[in-house]
Amino acid sequence: MASRSRTLLWIFALLGLGAASWSAWVHANLLRNPLYTSVCDINSTLSCSDAYLSPYGSFLGIPVALPGVLFFVVVLALLAAERRATPAVKANIPGYIFATSTIGLSFVLYLAYGAFIVLKAICILCLLTYVAVIGLFLVSGAVSTVPMQHLPNRALRDLRAVLASPAALAVLLLLVVGSVAAFAYFPRESDRLGGVAHAVESASGGASGGAAGTAANAGAAAAAAAAPAQSLPAAQRAEVEQWFDMQPRSIVPEDPQGATVLIVKFHDYQCPSCGRVHFDYKPILKRYAAESPGKVRYIVRDFPLSSQCNPTGGSNPFSCDAAVAVKAAQAANKGEAMADWIFEHQQTLTRENLRQAARDIAGVADFDAAYKKYIDQVKADASAGALLQVRATPTFFINGVKIEGGLAPPYFDAVIAHALKKGGQ
Known about the structure:
The protein is α+β, with helices and mostly antiparallel strands. It has helices spanning 3-32, 48-52, 65-84, 87-119, 124-143, 151-164, 166-185, 189-192, 195-204, 209-226, 234-246, 272-291, 319-330, 335-344, 351-362, 367-387, 409-422; strands at 58-59, 62-63, 261-267, 296-302, 395-398, 401-404. The protein has 2 domains: 3-189, de novo design (two linked rop proteins) (Up-down Bundle), CATH 1.20.1440.130; 231-422, Glutaredoxin (3-Layer(aba) Sandwich), CATH 3.40.30.10. The strands form 2 sheets. The chain has a 4-stranded mixed sheet with strand order 4-3-5-6. Helix 4 crosses helix 10, helix 10 runs parallel beside helix 12 and helix 11 packs across helix 17.
């Protein structure tokens, strides 16, 4: 293998290992601590958290960053072995890298589809791993001289040689044990979300394309109706309460109408995270409405990520229409049903089926007239959000405390309970 090609393979492998390791670190922190904010969460479009916590952030229950780390470690091990291998083995190594990169590339294409097409989110760390995998695929493919059909037999022969070498066998065992330990001890989604949200992720796992969003939100709706709220251990609850008390407060121009806890949510109807929290928080809010009538006021404001009705901008094509549809439906006391339908059909939403749903659910016969009537209200919500420096959706203000992205249901519940106990101080 030429020196230049070898150098490029080392560069791409090290780049990928760094990005994948950083991704695993961020994902682990997000799962351990729902209050964690990643440095790569820049706005609603450039967001690592949305990618990692989506159904595309895990595969068969395993965070995708871990197989990524393992992939790049294997490539680096092959490159290291190439320096001391016999000429016969050296000729095989580019082929091994090309074969593994081909598998990695297919996985990368699936993840890129989920991020760019379904979630409409760009994860900078993910992009770096995509570049690394594509680079490895192209370079190794260019220098590989062994026909692919001959690789399996050569791999078995080389594996026997590895098993016969104590040093090589020790490295292989270390790699296997380290991988098993990483998979076993890495935090799981249930550590972060538990209860309702865990059911949501289970419902959406394995889906792809338009079905992914529909299945996830439909599963969320069912889970929200059936699952009880999960309480936090005392130590975690105390930590959340301390964190909440230390946060700065914003002045939110909304009338609490005598409520002790005022929650204002700014959201976009095409935002996957908005759909998730919409269904996750339903049973919690209904419980407080029953247990403490009038003490918790929950206000939803529109912040469509679309330049059509929001000067902040964005590229979600139907978010303005969706906001109008819900406001028009509210006039017929069908606002909640309309919102449920939109979030359940996020990934298959079109202007035509949205208008049909508004007609079927709320009797909105003339959507163009409704648009003219309510679009100024949507724009007013968006302007209010801009004044409050809303940058991403969903963004919550709980008694003035700004929370971007929302909280896992148990933490959301704990914050409300704490604010009630404090009497809205």
